[in-house]
Amino acid sequence: MRRGQAITALAALAVSLTACGSGSTPPGGAAAPGGLQAKNADLSGVNNYFIANTEQMGWFITDAEGLPLYRFDKDVPKPSKSNCEGECAKAWKPVLADKTPMATGVDPISMGVLTRPDGTKQLTIAGYPQYTYAEDKVAGDMKGQGKGGTWWVTAPNGAKITGGKAQNNTQNKSSGTPSTSPTSPAGQTPSSATPPAAPGY
């Protein structure tokens, strides 16, 4: 009887040790103290830009605050040159490129930087300097669209949006996925309804 109890006790001890050991050390080495921990990406050296969509405008580029980026017909794309200085640059604020630009939905090859006369760096898309408009205060504002017949919201491919999404970017024409949201005026916040597929950048 004692022999049987001893064997049972040894078997239980072996199972216990196996169970404890199986999860404590991963194959090929010891576990890192405290387990595995992923580091958050350091975005302190990055300027983030995004794309947004409205039924009226289609896809366009915004800054991190959701304000649209504009391009100016009087600027030059090749080589990139801004013709908005002085009072103009107070109303139309150059989008600074003092950090690495990172734009979700925009072809990184189309993004560049120009040096303004005052030495500041300005973001360019497809060669065109980019601006925000001082009167746009919250995400969805688009008060600068068509201003003076020379200021236009920038599409993800760098084109100017002059008459709605049909002129926005040709990649979107064949998507065949119309938005189910009602038409939103340019000054309204983009609809949360599922928009058409994003441009393939």
Description:
- It is a single chain.
- This protein is an alpha+beta fold.
- It has two helices and 13 strands; from the N terminus they run αβββββαββββββββ.
- Strands 2-1-7 form a three-stranded mixed sheet, with no helix packed on it.
- Strand 1 and strand 2 form a beta hairpin.
- The longest helix has 23 residues.
- It is globular, with a radius of gyration of 28 Å.
- The relative contact order is 0.18.
- About 28% of the residues have low confidence.
The chain-level mean pLDDT equals 74
Rough outline: globular
Proportion of helical residues? 10-25%
Widest beta sheet: strand line-up: 2-1-7
Radius of gyration: 28 Å
What proportion strand? 15-25%
**Low-pLDDT segments:** 6-32, 166-195
* Major sheet characteristics: 3 strands, mixed
Order of helices and strands: HEEEEEHEEEEEEEE
Structural classification: alpha+beta
Secondary structure tally: strands = 13
Q: Report how far apart the termini are.
A: 77 Å
Number of helices: 2
Topology:
Blueprint: H1 2-24, E1 46-54, E2 58-62, E3 70-72, E4 76-77, E5 80-81, H2 87-91, E6 92-94, E7 100-103, E8 111-115, E9 121-125, E10 128-129, E11 131-133, E12 151-154, E13 160-161
Parallel strand pairs: 1-7
Antiparallel strand pairs: 1-2, 3-12, 4-5, 6-11, 8-9, 9-10, 12-13
Short descriptors:
201 residues, alpha+beta, three-stranded mixed beta sheet, three-stranded antiparallel beta sheet, 2 helices, 13 strands, 14% helix, 24% strand
